[in-house]
Amino acid sequence: MRILLDKFSKRFGDVTVIDEMDLEIKSGEMIALLGPSGCGKSTTLFAICGIHQVNGGRILFGDKDVTHSTAQARNVGVVFQNYALYPHMNVFDNIAFPLTVRKDDKATIKREVEAIAALVHISELLERKPAQLSGGQQQRVALARALIRKPDVLLLDEPLANLDAKLRLEMRSEIRRIQLETGISAILVTHDQVEAMSMCDRIAIMNDGKILQIATPNDMYNNPDTDFVAGFLGNPPIAFLEGQAVDGHCQLADTDIRLPLPEHLSDLNGHQPIRLGVRPELVGNKDGTDVSGTISFVETQGRENLYDITLSNGAIIRSIQHVRDDVRLGDAVTWPIDCSKMLVFDQNGTRL
Q: What is the 3-state secondary structure (H, E, C) of 11-56?
């Protein structure tokens, strides 16, 4: 089911949270609304499911205008951060609840519950109460309850926030598997860029109630429109360096370091202020322009280590490499930067 937000606006009192947003979710696509707290992503989700009434624009499911339809009249499945399971009901009755309200017959309910329980791998848990389940099992029950009514769209509001790291990894792949198997259109709200990049076909990065960029995870990572987008994607995060454009190079502020700009910016000149974005994989791993600094932080990550290198002006760049025995905290190092893949932004944060 294609979902369309056409000039969607939402206000709370005198405060405009969303102003004329346009967004299309393609049929069968999973898209992430990614951004910091308060950027409007959950408000958008709640408007789509009918919890919030819109103040302007339209919401379409396929060709049907549902802008003023009640939440009950929209065929949506919602999974909340806190799961919202009924504690007095067992797993079977929790999953069956939407069909029970719809007054489906008992044979149909039994068949559908068993089928969806098998899909989310909880067939053996149907007699248990929510209190007897782990966080990951409760999440699967909430997902099954959302899917059993065969909704037109699945809405996921920070669904993995309460899980530990191992369960988050497992449930990321499980939710994606189920979404692909059912072919349902899905919207994920998250502030976790790893969730967005690993689970979704496209990402919409939001800030201050606006969508800044929509793209596939790879395209968003490699071709961000702004420094805000570049800074929001990537783990470890990108490092930013301030400087001036001089003869196709960037003269870093308060240093004698000059880094060649990417080829398409080789004519950039005029001492205009620019900002370089240097991702950790560009530092210390390949031939490039040597830069000297001091190792100011080492984080062990198993197969790899993350190294912070403080430059002479106090700026910090990062390098992620296989564990090295020849480098320790406080060491002076000279490592190359692959300048051809640096991101360059103007003083307003727009990509050059």
A: EECCEEEEEEEEEEECCCCEEEEECCCCCCHHHHHHHHHCCCCCCE
Q: Per the structure block, which two tokens stand in for 131?
A: 């209190």
pLDDT in tens, 290-300: 999 999 999 98
Find tokens 């420094």 and name the residue. 227
Residue 75, both tokens = 């065929």
- Sign of the CA dihedral with 199 first, then 203, 208, and 209 last: negative
Q: Which helix (DSSP H) or strand (DSSP E) does residue 171 occupy?
A: helix 165-182
> Would you state the structure tokens that stand for residue 298, as one six-digit string?
């080492």
Q: Which residues are within 8 A (CB) of 190 and not within 5 positions of it... i.e. 6 or more apart?
A: 32, 33, 34, 41, 158, 160, 196
Residue pLDDT, tens place only, 75-89: 999 998 888 899 999
What are the backbone dihedrals phi and psi of residue 44, each rounded to the nearest 5 degrees, phi first?
-60, -45
pTM greater than 0.85 = yes
pLDDT in the model for residue 3: 96
Q: CA 39, 42, 46, 48 torsion: positive or negative?
A: positive
User: Rounded to whole angstroms, how far apart are CA atoms 252 and 39?
Assistant: 33
Torsion from C-alpha of 75, 79, 80, 83, nearest 10 degrees = 130
Q: Is the peptide bond before 36 cis (omega within 30 degrees of 0)?
A: no
Question: What is the DSSP-derived secondary structure letter of residue 108?
Answer: H
d(CA 116, CA 231): 39
Stretch (H or E) spanning 92 = helix 91-101
Residue whose token pair is 């967004």 = 23
- Asked whether 190 and 165 are in contact (CB, 8 A), the reply is no
> Which phi and psi angles does 232 have, rounded to 5°?
-85, -20
Long-range contacts of 296-302 (CB under 8 A, 24+ apart): 296/329, 296/330, 297/329, 298/327, 298/328, 298/329
Helix (H) or strand (E) holding 210: strand 210-215
Question: H/E element holding 336?
Answer: strand 332-337
Spatial separation of the C-alpha atoms in residues 142 and 164, rounded to whole Å: 17
- Look at the chain and count its residues: 352
